From TrEMBL:
This is tRNA wybutosine-synthesizing protein 5. PROSITE patterns: JMJC (PS51184). One of its GO terms (molecular function) is tRNA binding. It catalyses: 7-[(3S)-3-amino-3-carboxypropyl]wyosine(37) in tRNA(Phe) + 2-oxoglutarate + O2 = 7-(2-hydroxy-3-amino-3-carboxypropyl)wyosine(37) in tRNA(Phe) + succinate + CO2. Belongs to the TYW5 family. tRNA hydroxylase that acts as a component of the wybutosine biosynthesis pathway. Wybutosine is a hyper modified guanosine with a tricyclic base found at the 3'-position adjacent to the anticodon of eukaryotic phenylalanine tRNA. Catalyzes the hydroxylation of 7-(a-amino-a-carboxypropyl)wyosine (yW-72) into undermodified hydroxywybutosine (OHyW*). OHyW* being further transformed into hydroxywybutosine (OHyW) by LCMT2/TYW4. OHyW is a derivative of wybutosine found in higher eukaryotes. Residues 123-267 form the JmjC domain. It comes from Chrysemys picta bellii. Pathway: tRNA modification; wybutosine-tRNA(Phe) biosynthesis.
Length: 315
């Protein structure tokens, strides 16, 4: 079984000033309640979404299992008109389907040309964007993307981290979100930005024994709640009901720190990527040594990294 979850702070009626002064500097997740998000929380029914966004084609994930795995790709990509997709995503059983009658659907909106354009609800879904008032608790020039998301009930997304700060705005439906501190990365069995551990509630501890060391934080999001997820915090999202949300990402580092070709906002900062490449070359060089020497100098490298790069300034 997973560890008992730690609390995620909840705050009501948070102004921009209070968020920036009292919550943001802590660099910890927080649920913000009572923020004015506009009319979307009451208007965005299945019928309204279907009629307003119409037949625009959208690329979606389709899965026959609740726990989606980006590493093994246990889902397929398909394209549907938006109105057809929304109605299917809201169903439990389908008369029309791609794989099975109980398949689940997930939309993560993309830019018009995903290779060059970021996701921005104001551009891809302008008629819906009129209904939502995004809390701009950051400077306008820091804005990176606003990602429109729709999930079937029961769908669970893989644990991953993002390199930018973001707000997960729950507009309709309910979600459960499990989070892990960046410092627990050694226990999450990472492949790139994603964890190999899919079932975080009942993990396979024979396969992933270190996972028990990762302290989990958990919160429930109701319609109208906003979850602040600081950059590098791992998160796993379970849609307990059919729901609609919007993620807003912003650059909290100087713009030159980010990869200019990154339209999804999930590539590591350029300095981090360079450092990993240098480390890979160093490890390749160590292979020239016999095992005893390789082990010795590898341990010295680890100690040097701890001495020079580890921080003691946060929990």
């Amino acid at each position: 079984m997973a560890q008992p979850a730690g609390p995620v702070a909840r705050h009501s009626g948070v102004s921009r000033e209070r968020f920036r002064q009292d919550i943001y500097p802590l660099r910890k997740p927080a649920v913000l309640k009572g923020i004015d998000l506009g009319t979307c929380t009451t208007k965005w029914t299945v019928d309204y979404l279907s009629q307003t966004a119409g037949t625009k084609e959208v690329k979606i994930h389709v899965s026959t299992v609740p726990q989606m795995d980006f590493l093994s790709k246990n889902f397929v990509y398909r394209t549907l008109p938006f109105d057809v997709f929304v109605r299917r995503a809201a169903e439990v059983k389908h008369n029309e389907y791609f794989i099975s009658e109980d398949e689940k659907y997930y939309l993560r909106s993309l830019g018009d040309d995903p290779r060059k354009d970021i996701a921005d609800i104001r551009k891809q879904f302008p008629s819906l964007a009129e209904d939502i008032q995004i809390p701009e608790y950051f400077e306008k020039e820091q804005f990176f993307s606003s990602v429109f998301r729709i999930s079937s009930a029961g769908l669970q997304l893989w644990t991953h981290y993002d390199i930018m700060d973001n707000f997960l705005i729950q507009i309709t439906g309910k979600k459960r979100v499990i989070l892990y501190n960046p410092r627990d990365a050694p226990y999450l069995y990472l492949a790139g930005t994603k964890s190999e551990v899919l079932n975080v509630d009942n993990p396979d501890l024979e396969k992933y024994p270190l996972f028990m060391k990762a302290r989990r934080y958990e919160c429930s999001l109701e319609a109208g709640d906003v979850l602040f997820i600081p950059a590098l915090w791992f998160h796993n999202v379970i849609s307990e009901e059919f729901g609609v949300g919007v993620n807003v990402f912003w650059k909290h580092l100087p713009s030159e720190c980010y990869d200019k070709t990154d339209t999804y906002g999930n590539k590591d900062p350029t300095a981090a990527s360079r450092a990993v490449q240098i480390l890979d070359r160093a490890l390749k060089t160590l292979e020239e040594l016999p095992e005893e020497y390789r082990d010795f100098y590898a341990r010295r490298m680890v100690l040097r990294i701890q001495e020079k790069a580890y921080s003691t300034n946060y929990e």
